[in-house]
Amino acid sequence: MVQVIKRKTPADVNIADRPAEFDKRVVAHIPMLRKLAERYCHRNEWDEVVQETVESALMAWEKFRPEGSFHRWLYWRFRGVTRQRGSDDGKRRALIREDPEGLAAARASTPARQEEIVFTTEVLRKLSRSREGRMLVRAASGETYGDIGRKRGIGGERVRQLCERAREKISKVAA
Question: Which tens digits make up the pLDDT trace of 71-124?
């Protein structure tokens, strides 16, 4: 059996029960909604999105929990309105800004690091061949010197000394 959920319309909401304090809080947060609309919506949609968010908040006033953050609750109402507006055609619209110089793409991209990754892999492979190198790798992965020493049958101080020796070898290779 399929249950049909009917959405509330403005006519279904009992305005007389809504406290005046709630209305005042919504009106006080309109500048915040305006800033969100300017940030996440197209310029020609700003007023409509703010108006729809206010309407949505006033219709769903009973869902607000007083112990929660009103600002956060209103933000999620805004997200619901923008998502619903963006999915009218079944797809979310992406906000596209013109960037003819490609400055945004240059800031977002990172330079290729294949050479550093290959070098690091080779260093780790060489470390794995020696006793102190294996201990250093284990220490770098978060194990304590004492734990490594217990597994090897030596003391934690000796593990520290061997790790220090491995670090010196790495610094010579890197220099």
Answer: 899 999 999 888 887 644 434 455 556 767 766 666 666 666 788 888 778 877
CATH of the domain at 20: 1.10.1740
Please return the burial class of 124, using the count of CB atoms within 10 Å of its CB with bins 0-12, 13-18 and 19+: middle
Does the model's pTM come out above 0.90?
A: no
Is residue 103, in this structure, part of any structural domain at all? Answer: no
Q: How many whole angstroms separate alpha carbon 165 and alpha carbon 122?
A: 18
Domain count, the chain: 2
Determine contact, residues 75/62, Cβ cutoff 8 Å.
Answer: no
Burial class (CB within 10 angstroms; exposed 0-12, middle 13-18, buried 19+) of 5: exposed
In which domain, by residue range, is 147 found? Answer: 114-174
Burial label, 32 (beta-carbon count in 10 A; 0-12, 13-18, 19+): middle
Domain membership of residue 154 (yes or no) is yes
- SS3 category, 9: coil
